[in-house]
Amino acid sequence: MNLVMQFGNVEAEIEFFASLVKADGWLKGDHIDLGLYLIRKRQQELEEVEISDWTTTDNHIHTCFADNKRKKEQVGWKIRNSLLNVVNGKVPACGMDWQNAYKYKHWVAVMIDLVKCEIKVYDSMVSLIPDEILKEELAPLSITIPNLLNTIDFYEEGVYANNCSRDWWCPWPIERVDVPQQSNQGDCGMFVLKYIELLSAEIPLATCTSQNMPFFRLKLAAEITRGDAYMP
């Protein structure tokens, strides 16, 4: 008999939790999506988490960009409705309107600053991917995001009116941030989740160490099982 637990659209079998709690276990897209969902859900439900000017996407947005990789031309192309739904807060679950808020098998966290109009990359193993290749992989994002926001007049009204310091057709700069590094091969997914969790709560990243990852893995497994995230 195979035990299957349902978490939203994710079916978690024994292998799901086995790879999650295993030292160096590779986290798949479902692991990342569930972890991010619990962070967003906690933000909405707990008064102690007062930071409200942020949200996260899920792994689906990566698929959208991969399916529709941008050409060098930056005009005359159509934004996918699936991307518009992310910005408007319709997806993923517990998301929010942004107005209110593969060559390498490796996870990185990407922060999109809507005020400074720049993209910051939180990478737990900077030695794996050279800067030029990382920027090449993220180039479609740096072009699509400003075009996407221009499509919905993001900087024309609301709290972000006239807040963008760049012309909408200019690709946003991509910068790698100096962050704690992993010392093994399989913890990048867990590092990404912890980066996002701590940054969203304005907590320093000092606890993001390889020594702490076994505990963080067990903590995430417990949070997924109970359906709620504990405080960071």
From TrEMBL:
One of its GO terms (cellular component) is nucleus. Residues 10-199 form the Ubiquitin-like protease family profile domain. The keyword Lipid biosynthesis does not apply. Coiled coil: none annotated. The keyword DNA-binding does not apply. GO terms for biological process: protein desumoylation; proteolysis. Keywords: Hydrolase, Protease, Thiol protease. It comes from the Eukaryota. GO terms for molecular function: deSUMOylase activity. Belongs to the peptidase C48 family. This is Ubiquitin-like protease family profile domain-containing protein.
